[in-house]
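Hi,

I'm pasting everything inline rather than attaching a file, because the server keeps stripping attachments. The sequence lines come first, and each chain or strand is labelled.
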Amino acid sequence: MKITTNFSTPVGWLAPYLAGICFLLTALSVIVSVVLFMSANRAREEIPMLEEQLARYRSRAVDAPGELPPRDKLAALSVQVKALKGLTGPLGQTLPQLLARIEGIVPDRVWLVSLEYRVREGEAKLVAEADQAELLTEFMTGLEQSGFFSQVLLTRQARRMEGAQTSVQFEIQLRGK
Amino acid sequence: MSHLWNRFASRLRPTSTSAISLGICGDRVVAVRVDPMENGRCITHVAEERLPFAPFRDTAPRAGDPAILAQALQKLATAVPQAHWPLQISLPDPAAIFQVMEFDSLPKAASEREAIARFRMERELPAVAGMESSFQVLGEDNGKTLLLSLAVPCGWLDCLREGCRAAGFVPSVTDIGASHLFNRFQDAFAAGEDGVLVSIEADSWAVLFWDQGGRPRFFRSRWRELDREDGADHESMAQEVERLVRAYVLSSPGRRIGRVYLCSGLAEHDSFAARLNARMQVPCVQLDLADGFYVTAGVSKRDVSLGTLAATIPRS
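And the predicted assembly:
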């Protein structure tokens, strides 16, 4: 039996614990390294397939146009396109614009019965109905004074009877500016 | 689980390593470095500092002693740097009170065990009050649990610790020289019989008894006079050893000393051995501590005390 009395605190008593922790950390590092290595290998195996896919997408790409025409020629073409659009496109305003403008003009107790709009000609034909003819006159005056239309023309006027109720209908032709 | 962990931990420790020992012998502090060799150990560095006082000789250090000791240790640290090697300190044997106590039962918790042992020691030996103790459970004998208690003056221990801290020394073991010697010669002791180790240093001598189970049982140590006459001193020591052996044998039935082991670094070793042999009626075996130690050229181990040299063997 050896004597083990000691008046110093041995400094080495932590060594086995530290060694154990180091061993565990090393084991953990090895496991992570193996996982990373396997993952890298798998990624490397996927490279040829991905390159093949990339080549396929590249072959599908649209060839870029060759040289563009000179700037002055492009400007002339742009003017021509605008002129063609002016000839073939709608006159003045689109249908939503027309509806928005009429909505702001139509007085109370006047109803729109129908609206026919020919975009290319810039012409619209609408039928409005009211209890009194004065209201429709007021509506037409509003249309004329709005400044949105070059022509406001009353094409037809009719009176309609429904039981004891009577109403007046105006057919108005509009031409946009 | 604890057993498995201890086995694992022991495998992690290096089997052979360089070691530093620090010993106090009289008014000298000696540092020794030993490197492992194929067939033993090689003493590569020996450094010594002389002090104007003998540490541990008085009960407590005087006011200026700690600073002087710290300065000496710093010089030794320069000559024999510890680096990462283990450092073991050998204290003078007479500085300690060595007591083996018998208990009907002892608590398992070390703190409770030490509190009980300390209480009993202080009751039996009032001098222990100003001392620091270290304990070791020695096992059971005749239904009693044996507890070894070693007490050393706190003042000197603190002084030594401060000095070591200042010098950059980090001791792993601090024990008396007799403990280092007892551990060193474990293989040389005959198994299954009581024995006694007599160790003689330049400034002190000690007697350590162990029983048939190899457990330390009894210890005595004395300072030697500095202005002594060798012949009378040897005769006095031999007489005291004989008296102690008789006391040990008679203290308990069945005790019989098989061999007396003598370890001495003295030049007059043979003279003392002859006196001891004449008095003892049992074989006196001389142990050579230097056996297995080689010395690098230019280094002398002449002034290295037995305890200091034994302390170079790391305690595993």
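The mean pLDDT of chain A is 85.

If the labels don't parse on your end, tell me and I'll reformat.
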